[in-house]
Design goal:
The complex is a heterodimer of chains A (about 575) and B (about 475). With about 575 residues, chain A is mainly α. Chain A has 25 helices and 10 strands. Chain B is about 30% helix and about 10% strand. The chains are: A mainly alpha (about 575), B alpha/beta (about 475).
Chain lengths: ~575, ~475
């Protein structure tokens, strides 16, 4: 009886519902030690709910059951990254044109949204065919993957090379060794084209078939048997979960080897691998991608029209710089700085280019290009005081306190207010030609003062007025329409309610909010598990939140905690 | 009466479907009926698009003949469509009631999920997780229902194209929760429609001769799809019922593609291409919106004329200021569409909509430029529907401007108004609720009428049977 089974027994006897299966009878899921005949060691016991065999995590019984684990298709990002990693150093992959995925609850990797559509299926075929064609012409690819040179004219050598290619390439495509029956199927396909066309044609069409395979485009988790509807993942299945979690891409050779060697069967092994993955630049890219979607970095694209009479520095070049800064900022905070959510909300460090330096009023980098900068501490604190957020929640001439407030309330606090009533005037409030110039805040106070508006707007404007120090493109200002900016405000509807003065204090309050932290964890859960959190996931969010707190609130520790989490190593088996 | 072949088929009740009678098709395939949805983002104030004639009561149902009108009699927004007045059906007062009765009735929110589906929507757990509500329809859009009905095996069932941001707001749903991605450039549309780099042209390609290596590779690609389908079928036996459904659906699409690649579809022998112009390069290479839409229009015309597909949609997101001559630095949504009673903004939104009308006119011109063998044009055999997700500045959906163009069964050349619908909805004031008690007929019924035009024997589109005291079931009256 392996360690996993022991743990299960402990849990069952402690009265927890559900249990984790042990062995694996389905060869194509490669549960224990890989398939026969492909070098499996038989050493992989598979991770259980507590693979290290130490004390079971303190979580409530309902959390013992993993939530739904729908079949995941590779998202657009995952597909593109996987293709790039698969051929890195072996083939110049042609540009691929894959349609984007639908967003589900804020993220474009929602398993339930990742269904097929005809355009996508056609695009996969075109890409596969194109890559196959390119690959068949590249001796480097063949040498690099199959270890055999193209042996033109020698049919037997070509066949041997074809089979070697199928086994080696297939392991990368399937993210596990192929079972012999699968190898046979692909060899038969290869040979049909080998005899009917030629070696290069057979290679091209075999690659074509591989890259349209269900095992490539979907992430199957088939480990069995299940007990109580739950099954532990095989080493290879867990390897894929880990690499897609941290890299949004396929496992590398080291991770596949770790799976083959059974190293993912215990906490130390998983932790070693996940920390190794986190040290790779791909982890930085995934972390940025998570924040990009959570905090809507790309909204700027939709809201990029500003009045250039008021903002002559506004230009498409500045817009791309503002957008790029968000990526650089997140990467810097998480991987080069303190790495915490609080820092994301309060840091004054960033990277700028010449245009951004002008906007921020700091020295331009020397030499030109991107360089580190420290922003004035009295003017900036964290993401919500940066031009991307500020400009993308603004009208063309003025900032919009309700838009900014709504984004903070929903994105950072995970709260939602009812949609504005259909007759709400959401236009940019204009100065009255007769009443004298007012500040932007005064105009919005007037606009939202009716009783019907005040309920929601006390919440929205509570945040938004705190950001009145920034104009429509995110420049800091102390004067608005020749009057002093009033950024005194009050936070309402949060766990850190109360008065504050200006954006710095607002950001600091948010950095101290448990609600914001919980919201970030909820979003991370959503991104990591590719599904929305459901009511009974609350305990899972709490588990992750506690882990995060216990690890100094480091974002990367949240990633590690997710990977080490018992649920992450098991799946719900539904009929 | 000059009985064209199509008329004969109509008389026999045979037109409108994917019906190919061998004895008929071998001689000359019938002209298929096509559908084009032109979907724009944002509407225009009612006073910009409404049209009135003297002596007709606001409160009674009425209609008038568009053919008799001078261009100046057309409303500001619809002026560019005047040249097609005999092929227009302008509908005044339809409401998207299916959206109004749901919990996020602002047009930008619930509009795209209901406009062509008339279904309830799912807010996709927005309350539980994060902001960024993602509203998903719970049913397919009518164009996709039609595409399934009239699509021919071995051809594209439909093609979706449009501008950049539409993925966030798409109106085309293949099934519950599944909006379809779009192609964003004419070049992408071209290579999807004509992957060989050329239109098929009016005559079938020569056959015979030994296959070249390229022919063998091409056949191999289709063969790979056959191989792959078997793998999907196998994997489908190992997963849960819901996952199996997804794999089965993927497999079906592989089959569809295989038929197209191998030219073995049921429509292969009856390929209608007599009106297919020969072209070897994609139109619409320019980057300006105007070039892009011009390209889309041309490509849809080619797709229809060459019978590559029979259902298409062009979805556009909000136009940039420069695209319609608006004031520099303004944003359509933030600064103009919530126009209130501001005359300047109302006028600009009129210009905005007029620009869309001009774009549509350009597309109609493309469709009208291609002759069918019976002397009609592709436009005559296409039902074009222009709609959008919003009604007025309030972003409500109670008073949608909807224009039907082309031919294909409805009685064209008319402006049809449903009396009793509140003509003031959309020009300011009021709130949700009481004012919307006086909405016009649910647009759901137009969707039913459309579906019926394409041979679907249904009485309801979507799952909403009534809204705001009106039935959503049954076809819309006064269309034929």
């Amino acid at each position: 009886m392996g360690k996993r089974s022991l743990v299960i027994m402990m849990l069952v006897s402690a009265g927890c519902e559900g249990s984790i299966g042990g062995g694996n009878t389905d060869p194509s899921s490669n549960g224990n030690g890989g398939p026969p005949g492909t070098g499996g060691t038989g050493m992989d016991p598979g991770p259980g709910p507590n693979p290290g065999g130490g004390p079971a995590p303190t979580i409530t019984p309902s959390c013992m059951r993993p939530g739904a684990t729908p079949l995941r298709r590779l998202s657009e990002n995952e597909y593109v990254n996987t293709i790039a990693d698969m051929f890195k150093g072996k083939l110049m992959v042609p540009a691929l044109d894959i349609p984007g995925d639908n967003v589900g609850a804020g993220f474009a990797n929602d398993a339930y949204q990742l269904v097929a559509n005809q355009l996508l299926v056609d695009s996969y075929e075109r890409s596969a065919s194109l890559i196959g064609q390119t690959a068949s012409r590249a001796a480097m690819m063949l040498q690099g993957i199959a270890g055999c040179p193209p042996a033109a004219g020698n049919a037997a050598a070509e066949s041997a090379c074809g089979k070697a290619f199928i086994q080696t390439f297939g392991r990368r495509v399937f993210r596990r060794p192929m079972v012999p029956a699968e190898v046979d199927e692909f060899v038969a396909l290869f040979e049909r084209f080998h005899s009917g066309i030629d070696f290069a044609g057979a290679l091209q069409l075999t690659v074509d078939a591989f890259l349209q395979s269900p095992e490539f485009l979907y992430r199957f988790e088939l480990s069995q048997p299940a007990q109580g509807g739950i099954a532990g993942l095989s080493g290879y299945e867990l390897a894929s979960r880990l690499s897609f979690l941290v890299w949004e891409s396929m496992p590398d050779e080291a991770l596949l080897t770790a799976a083959a060697m059974g190293k993912l069967g215990n906490v130390a092994g998983i932790e070693g691998e996940v920390r190794r993955l986190l040290g790779d630049p791909r982890a930085r890219a995934t972390t940025i991608d998570f924040h990009r979607q959570w905090l809507e970095f790309d909204r700027l694209e939709q809201e990029s029209e500003k009045d250039t009479r008021l903002y002559p520095i506004w230009s498409p070049t500045l817009v791309s710089a503002i957008r790029e800064e968000s990526d650089r900022f997140v990467g810097g905070v998480i991987f080069d700085g303190k790495g915490t959510l609080a820092d994301l909300l309060t840091s004054t460090k960033t990277e700028v280019n010449t245009l951004l330096a002008r906007l921020y009023g700091v020295a331009a980098p020397n030499p030109a290009g991107w360089g580190a900068a420290m922003l004035p501490a009295g003017e900036r604190a964290g993401f919500f005081t940066r031009p991307n957020f500020l400009a993308s929640h603004s009208h063309s001439q003025n900032g919009s306190p309700p838009l900014r407030g709504n984004a903070i309330y929903s994105r950072a606090f995970c709260n939602e207010l009812p949609a504005a009533p259909p007759d709400a005037d959401q236009s940019n409030p204009a100065q009255s030609p007769t009443a004298g110039m007012k500040t932007n805040r005064q105009l919005f106070e007037e606009r939202t003062s009716p009783a019907a508006c005040a309920g929601c707007h006390s919440v929205l404007n509570g945040f938004g007025y705190g950001l009145e120090n920034y104009d429509a493109i995110g420049r800091f200002r102390r004067q608005d329409n020749m009057q002093p900016v009033n950024a005194q405000s009050t936070m309402v509807g949060t766990d850190v309610d109360g008065a504050f003065s200006g954006p710095i204090q607002m950001s600091q309050k948010m950095a101290g909010s448990e609600q914001v932290k919980h919201c970030m964890v909820a979003n991370w859960f959503r991104f990591a598990m590719a599904r929305q959190a459901e009511t009974d996931d609350e305990c899972r969010l709490k588990y992750l939140g506690d882990k995060l707190k216990g690890a100094g609130n480091q974002f990367v520790e949240l990633v590690v905690a997710t990977a080490l989490w018992p649920e992450f190593s098991s799946r719900t088996v539904s009929q | 009466m000059n009985m064209t072949r199509r008329n004969v088929l109509h008389a026999l009740g045979l037109a409108g479907g994917s019906l190919y009678l061998p004895s008929l098709t071998q001689a000359a395939p019938m002209i298929p009926k096509r559908l084009l949805m032109f979907l724009t983002w944002h509407s225009s104030p009612y006073q910009n698009w409404k049209m009135r004639r003297p002596g007709l009561s606001e409160n009674a149902d009425h209609e008038f003949d568009l053919k008799a009108l001078a261009q100046a009699d057309f409303s500001m927004a619809y002026q560019p469509l005047w040249e097609f007045r005999s092929k227009l059906l302008i509908l005044d007062a339809l409401s998207n009631a299916a959206n109004l009765i749901q919990d996020n009735p602002q047009g930008h929110n619930g509009g795209p999920a209901t406009l062509l589906t008339s279904s309830t929507y799912d807010r996709n757990g927005a309350k539980m997780v994060v902001g960024g509500t993602t509203i998903k329809s719970t049913g397919p859009s009518v164009d996709q229902m039609i595409a399934q009905r009239i699509g021919v095996a071995g051809r594209l069932r439909s093609i979706e194209m449009g501008s950049n941001l539409i993925d966030n707001y798409g109106c085309i749903w293949q099934a519950a929760g599944q909006s379809l991605p779009i192609l964003r450039t004419p070049a992408q549309v071209w290579s999807r429609l004509f992957p060989n780099g050329t239109t098929p042209g009016p005559t079938p390609p020569p056959t015979g001769g030994p296959p070249t290596r390229d022919d063998k590779i091409a056949a191999g690609r289709a063969s790979v799809l056959d191989f792959t389908q078997a793998r999907y079928a196998k994997m489908a036996t190992k997963v849960s019922a819901s996952d199996k459904q997804r794999l089965d659906s993927h497999r079906q699409m592989l089959r569809d593609l295989e038929l197209r690649l191998s030219g073995a579809g049921a429509g292969g022998s009856a390929y209608y291409s007599a009106s297919c112009p020969t072209m070897v390069a994609s139109p619409g290479a320019g980057t300006a919106l105007r070039d892009k839409i011009d390209g889309f229009g041309k490509l849809v015309s080619l797709a229809f004329a060459c019978d590559v597909t029979r259902v298409a949609s062009i979805q556009l997101d909000k136009m940039a200021i420069g695209d319609f001559g608006g004031p520099a630095g303004m944003d359509v949504h933030q600064d103009m569409a919530h126009h209130g009673t501001d005359a300047q903004k109302i006028m600009m939104m009129g210009k905005y909509y007029q620009t869309h009308a001009a774009q549509l006119a350009g597309i109609l011109r493309q469709l009208d430029a291609i002759r069918e063998p019976d002397g009609t044009t592709v436009l005559d055999n296409t039902i074009v529907v222009w709609a959008n997700e919003c009604g007025s500045w309030e972003h409500q959906t109670a008073h949608l401007p909807i224009v039907v163009a082309g031919g294909g069964g409805f009685k064209m050349g008319r402006y049809v108004r449903w009396g009793g619908a509140d003509p003031n909805v959309g020009v300011g004031g009021g709130g949700n609720g009481e004012r919307y008690q006086r909405i016009g007929p649910p647009h759901s019924r137009l969707l039913v009428s459309l579906a019926r035009q394409f041979g679907l024997d249904i009485n309801q589109v979507g799952n909403i049977t009534s809204a705001k005291g009106q039935t959503c079931v049954g076809p819309l009256d006064r269309l034929t």
